Amino acid sequence: MDEGNSNKTIATPAMSVNPAHETDQPTITEVNITIPKTEYEKLKTQAAEYLDGWKRAKADYINFKKETDERQSEFVKFSAQTALMGLIPIYDHLKAAFAHLPPERNEDPWIDGVLKIKQEFASYLRDAGIEEIPTLNKPFDPTKHESVGIEINKDVPIHTVVKEIKGGYTLYGKVIIPARVVISEQEEQSNATPKVGTNEKSQT
């Protein structure tokens, strides 16, 4: 017998209803169907392809949902950025005021009250995802710092931040305002610009 032309018997579900009890729920039974083996293999291959396609579609949907959730989360995080950016200059003014506070005013109860306001302001910004960028005594980081000057200082490594001119901030780890800083150098940098193409002989 040709093995390739042999038949294959498969069990398929079938639904039946008892005519005497038309209101009864249908009964699911199995019916054996005999088909050529070649047709069976073809159907089996198609079923595997459909299953693979369903698995890919499911994986694509899961990835799409994950990306959508991430984008939505990012939107929620950064949607308030404009409003928060308006609060940062106010906080900077508070910081600057305390940086120039005369020592004799440190014990003033009114100053103590304003200090608590500054601390609560900083706490609010942190809760909103805003963090100050560390500067003093940190290595210069061009992704977070903006150099606005140099200072000769041989006591610290070269390009160390020695002074903060204006604070910088991140929002959920993303730099929104770089810190403006002064960095250290080991020796004075020459500002002289060499002349190019100078001809010392007079032309006749």
From TrEMBL:
Location relative to the cell: Cytoplasm
Transmembrane segments: none
CDD domains hit by this protein: GrpE (cd00446)
Protein keywords: Chaperone, Cytoplasm, Stress response
Biological processes annotated in GO: protein folding
Main location class: cytoplasm
Molecular functions per Gene Ontology: adenyl-nucleotide exchange factor activity; protein homodimerization activity; protein-folding chaperone binding; unfolded protein binding
Cellular component terms (Gene Ontology): cytoplasm
InterPro entries on file: GrpE, GrpE_CC, GrpE_head
Domain of life: Bacteria
Gene3D superfamilies referenced in this protein's UniProt entry, alphabetically: 3.90.20.20, Head domain of nucleotide exchange factor GrpE
Keyword check for Cytoplasm: yes
HAMAP family attached to this UniProt entry: GrpE (MF_01151)
Family, as annotated: Belongs to the GrpE family.
Subunit structure: Homodimer.
Function: Participates actively in the response to hyperosmotic and heat shock by preventing the aggregation of stress-denatured proteins, in association with DnaK and GrpE. It is the nucleotide exchange factor for DnaK and may function as a thermosensor. Unfolded proteins bind initially to DnaJ; upon interaction with the DnaJ-bound protein, DnaK hydrolyzes its bound ATP, resulting in the formation of a stable complex. GrpE releases ADP from DnaK; ATP binding to DnaK triggers the release of the substrate protein, thus completing the reaction cycle.
UniProt name for this protein: Protein GrpE
UniProt source species: Candidatus Uhrbacteria bacterium RIFCSPLOWO2_02_FULL_49_11
